[in-house]
Amino acid sequence: MAAATATRFCQQLSSVSDMSPDWTTKEVSTGTTIMAVEYEGGVVIGADSRTTTGAYIANRVTDKLTPIHDRIFCCRSGSAADTQAIADIVTYQLGFHSIELDEAPLVQTAANLFKASCYRYREELMAGIIVAGWDKRRGGQVYTVPVGGMLVRQPVSVGGSGSTYIYGFMDSNYKPNMTKEQCLHLVSGALSLAMERDGSSGGVIRLAAISESGVERQVILGNQLPKWSTA
Amino acid sequence: MREGLKTQDGGIQYDLSASTFSPDGRVFQVEYAMKAVENSSTAIGIRCKDGVVFGVEKLVLSKLYEQGSNKRIFNVDRHVGMAVAGLLADARSLSEVAREEASNFRSNYGHNIPLKHLSERVAMYVHAYTLYSAVRPFGCSFILGSYDQDDGPQLYMVDPSGISYGYWGCAIGKAKQAAKTEIEKLQMKDMTCRELVKEVAKIIYIVHDEVKDKAFELELSWVGEVTNGKHELVPKDVREEAEKYAKDSLEEEDDSDEENM
């Protein structure tokens, strides 16, 4: 969604016409659908796997779920370069902080570090990030840091260009205090719907469940995606 | 160089700067700084089930002093308090250092600074002043106490050498040995702040030397469930109750002494 606005803006600015394909000029973007859900004892996070430069799919098996620490992940949407750079910086800062404190870092700390970078450089960046993980003080938590650098904790959060298509689905199907399996089912169903409708989202579904015992990752391949229509 | 200057009996002085070790491996300047703390009146801090209580024996050198001036207990952050002994001016400057550390931490990481980390940061600062001949070590020890939802009650002490220690109960200043003996008698892990504040007042009254030091003011502060995590001076009614308990206990002991005679 944010990526679409950016690409239109760039088109007006650049002098290149229809002579060359758009993927020679467009920025690499994780068009994306990402989401994260809190449950009792942890969080479930999910993302699609499509990276685009304009209309060309530069990577159809992208991993947008990036580990920041042992029990803290972030879901990246927006500019691929910007989000990778920010994630690297926060990984360094959080790792240093954790060694200093001699204990596992809080999810809230990670989220604040993302916010600090995203807000300070808001004019230069295009990054919508969801920070999710587990810590022993407050359990599973989801924090969203959208474009602009706001920070807010939510029990459920969706992001990326494909998220617009699933707000209604989330509002009607999310209930508090779900189990891990129910969350996985909800996330994969929602992502599947978004990937069906959003041109910038697609590929495979990547899921991760983060809790005290660790991180369990899984992939749902294209032909195994939850089906919502008979077509 | 002055370090090679011979004293009258022919021995060489190793105590003139913090950048010199003595032959038996001591840094005298740091030890002298600790003597400055021992000359000061007593301060104690005790950690209990649901909070931390500080008590300071504040010697009143003149009747002309306004009551409550020259406080020896500082607020470092909303949830952190600091009681000091030694050179008060040095302690004040360190309280500013602690405040900045706590504030910067919250600004960078978005939550309260854990007390262990704060005491290590301030201890590192104190230690830096024990390395160079151009500066002198800080002449004060201080006790940091905090209460928050995540860690519960915490108590740490930092001394002029720049080491920090975690405690359940701790005393600094001239009567620290006597105070430690009294503190060891308490079962602080099972006590609440309300019970503990009376015991802290009693200990200060016990260790106060009526002969050598005349008047004193008792400064009491606490942080815990009872204050909703905010460090503050104990309210007037609680303090009066605590002082009454302290004075009554002392009289009882005096009476029991007389009976034994």
UniProtKB/TrEMBL annotation, chain B:
<feature type="compositionally biased region" description="Basic and acidic residues">
    <location>
        <begin position="233"/>
        <end position="249"/>
    </location>
</feature>
<keyword id="KW-0963">Cytoplasm</keyword>
<feature type="compositionally biased region" description="Acidic residues">
    <location>
        <begin position="250"/>
        <end position="261"/>
    </location>
</feature>
<dbReference type="Pfam" id="PF00227">
    <property type="entry name" value="Proteasome"/>
</dbReference>
<dbReference type="GO" id="GO:0019773">
    <property type="term" value="C:proteasome core complex, alpha-subunit complex"/>
</dbReference>
<keyword id="KW-0007">Acetylation</keyword>
<feature type="region of interest" description="Disordered">
    <location>
        <begin position="233"/>
        <end position="261"/>
    </location>
</feature>
<protein>
    <recommendedName>
        <fullName>Proteasome subunit alpha type</fullName>
    </recommendedName>
</protein>
<comment type="similarity">
    <text>Belongs to the peptidase T1A family.</text>
</comment>
<dbReference type="GO" id="GO:0006511">
    <property type="term" value="P:ubiquitin-dependent protein catabolic process"/>
</dbReference>
<dbReference type="InterPro" id="IPR000426">
    <property type="entry name" value="Proteasome_asu_N"/>
</dbReference>
<dbReference type="InterPro" id="IPR050115">
    <property type="entry name" value="Proteasome_alpha"/>
</dbReference>
<comment type="subunit">
    <text>The 26S proteasome consists of a 20S proteasome core and two 19S regulatory subunits. The 20S proteasome core is a barrel-shaped complex made of 28 subunits that are arranged in four stacked rings. The two outer rings are each formed by seven alpha subunits, and the two inner rings are formed by seven beta subunits. The proteolytic activity is exerted by three beta-subunits PSMB5, PSMB6 and PSMB7. Interacts with AURKB. Interacts with CDKN1A. Interacts with MDM2 and RB1. Interacts with the C-terminus of TBXA2R isoform 2. Interacts with DNAJB2.</text>
</comment>
<dbReference type="GO" id="GO:0005829">
    <property type="term" value="C:cytosol"/>
</dbReference>
<keyword id="KW-0647">Proteasome</keyword>
<dbReference type="Pfam" id="PF10584">
    <property type="entry name" value="Proteasome_A_N"/>
</dbReference>
<dbReference type="GO" id="GO:0005634">
    <property type="term" value="C:nucleus"/>
</dbReference>
<dbReference type="InterPro" id="IPR001353">
    <property type="entry name" value="Proteasome_sua/b"/>
</dbReference>
<keyword id="KW-0597">Phosphoprotein</keyword>
<dbReference type="InterPro" id="IPR023332">
    <property type="entry name" value="Proteasome_alpha-type"/>
</dbReference>
<dbReference type="InterPro" id="IPR029055">
    <property type="entry name" value="Ntn_hydrolases_N"/>
</dbReference>
<keyword id="KW-0539">Nucleus</keyword>
<feature type="domain" description="Proteasome alpha-type subunits">
    <location>
        <begin position="14"/>
        <end position="36"/>
    </location>
</feature>
